[in-house]
Amino acid sequence: MKTPFLYHGQDSAWLTPTESTLNVTMVSDIDTLISAIFIRCEPDNEELLIDMERGKTQGRLQYWHGELPINSDKDITFYTFKVMQNSRQWWLHGCGVSPRVPGKEKHFKFNNQHQPPTWVKEQVFYQVFPDRFSNANPSISVQSNEYYLRGTEKPTIAKAWGESASNHDSSGPSEFFGGDLQGIHNKIDYLQELGVTALYLNPIFTAPSNHKYDTTDYLNIDPHLGTNEQFADMVADLHQRNMKIMLDAVYNHTSVDHPWFDMYQRNTADQTVGAYDHPNSTYRQYYQFTDNSNEYIGWNGISTLPKLNFSNPEVQDYIYAGDDAVIKHWLKPPYNIDAWRFDVIHMLGEGKGARNNAHFVKSFRNAAKSVNPDCYVLGEHFFEASNWLQGDQEDGAMNYYGFAHPLRAFFAQKDIAYHACQIDAEELVEWLDEARTKLPWLNQLSQLNQLDSHDTMRFLTMVDNNTETMHLALMVLFAYVGTPCVYYGTEVELQGGQDPDNRRCFPWERTEQEQKPQTFSYLQQLIAVRKSSTALQSGSVQWLLAENQHFAFARTTETEHVLCLINNSESAKILHLPVWQLGIESGSLHDLLTDDEWHISEGSVSITLASKEGLLLTVSE
Question: Catalytic site residue 343?
Answer without folding.
Answer: yes
